[in-house]
Amino acid sequence: MPSVFAYQSSEVDWCEPNFQYSQLVAEFYNTFSNVTFFIFGPLMTFLMRPYIQQRSRYLYVLFVLFTVTGRWGHWDRVGGKRDNTLDHLPLSLPPGLFSMYFHMTLSFLGQMLDEIAILWLLASGYSIWLPRCYFPAFLGQNRSRYSSLIIIISLVSTFLSFLRPTINAYALNAIGLHIIYIVVQEYKKTKNKELQHLIEVSTLIWALAFTSWISDRLLCSFWQWINFSYLHSIWHVLISFTFPYGMVILALVDSAYEMPNKTLKVRYWPRDTWPMGLPYVEMGDDHKSC
Ligand SMILES: CCCCCCCC/C=C\CCCCCCCC(=O)N[C@@H](CO)[C@H](O)/C=C/CCCCCCCCCCCCC
Ligand SMILES: [Ca+2]
Ligand SMILES: [Zn+2]
Q1: Other CB atoms within 10 A of residue 240 CB
Q2: Using 50, 70 and 90 to split pLDDT, how confident is the model at 95?
Q3: Before 270, cis peptide (omega within 30)?
Q4: Atom 11 (ligand 1): residue with closest C-alpha?
Q5: Alpha-carbon distance 276 to 82, whole Å?
Q6: ipTM, 2 decimals?
Q7: Which residues cross the membrane (predicted)?
Q8: Cα–Cα distance measured from residue 143 to residue 210, given in angstroms and rounded to the nearest whole number
């Protein structure tokens, strides 16, 4: 049995031809198309810092899970000494970095690191942001009991992910589908036109991303026949855009339930006036209830 570190030890192999440009990088475009994760993660962490500090510092875990946390890991030697600047942060390296390692090596370890990081990214988002009205009835809308349940489910799922690795990504995409279901329910409830617009755009982006992902997995022979086997790289770029949109949408939905007397303003980086921009939220002035 090959080592879990060995190149191509994963049962999963994406459509892009292997080792086209280098003997060290199995899937060149699938590896380097993860770069957008390293842009959006730190940028969103910086832009949404005031909101994070008001809502919950645990959100840093979610942003860190999404973002690269250093040069190929913060344990790198920097200038000959250990770089421990990030040791105090609850770190598990993020999907973007692990996805790069996975596509570079197509190793079993790379696949499991990638998929487990995504699982805990989604779990942290669920535990912080899922509106209480969607909690299972037996929890009585108690968020700390719900978060404990999420942690238990995530620990069991982490163990189960080693049993049938080839279905992990399908299961994670099913969770993504549930997130879309939640935001569509909120779309129907809200009168906030800006929130509705954000949900329309992010749902379209997610649908295009998922279509790319599933096509790469199931229709590879067709794409290789027409010599276009880069749909998974397109998935990386599109799904990374759902992160800023998803954060803003969930922050707006959450604040309506959890911080009703606070106003969140949607801003667009780098300029509100630009036709295309990255959404983020700013804390508005508090509503003083008289
Ligand atoms: C109420 C719940 C709140 C949860 C909020 C979480 C929002 C997360 C947003 C984006 C997550 C991006 C994760 C990307 C993974 C990148 C690594 C990757 O591509 N891995 C592949 C192999 O390289 C692997 O095959 C992918 C597996 C499937 C990942 C499924 C991710 C689901 C993302 C759901 C996004 C919903 C966005 C909703 C917008 C309103
Ligand atoms: Ca391949
Ligand atoms: Zn990938």
Answers
A1: 24
A2: low
A3: yes
A4: 243
A5: 40
A6: 0.96
A7: 28-46, 58-75, 144-163, 169-185, 197-214, 234-257
A8: 30
In angstroms, the CA 205 to CA 235 distance is 10
The pick from 239, 245, 249, 266 for probing ligand 1's pocket by mutation, whose C-beta has the most ligand atoms within 8 angstroms, reads 239
Pocket of ligand 1 (CB under 6 A): 95, 99, 102, 114, 118, 122, 125-126, 129-130, 169, 172-173, 176, 179-180, 182-183, 202, 206, 236, 239, 242-243, 245-246, 249-250
**Residue whose CA is at the smallest distance from ligand 1 atom 36:** 176
Does the annotation flag 254 for ligand binding? no
Centroid of ligand 1 to alpha carbon of 241 (angstroms): 10
Alpha carbon nearest to ligand 1 atom 21, residue: 99
Asked if residue 62 has pLDDT above 80, the reply is no
Render pLDDT for 176-208 as a digit per residue (tens, 0 to 9).
999 999 999 999 999 999 999 999 999 999 999
Q: Residue 192, CB half-sphere, CA atoms under 13 Å: how many?
A: 16
pTM of the model: 0.87
Q: What percent of the chain has pLDDT over 90?
A: 62
d(CA 59, CA 124): 8
**119 or 262: which leads in pLDDT:** 119
C-beta separation of 162 from 112 below 8 A: yes
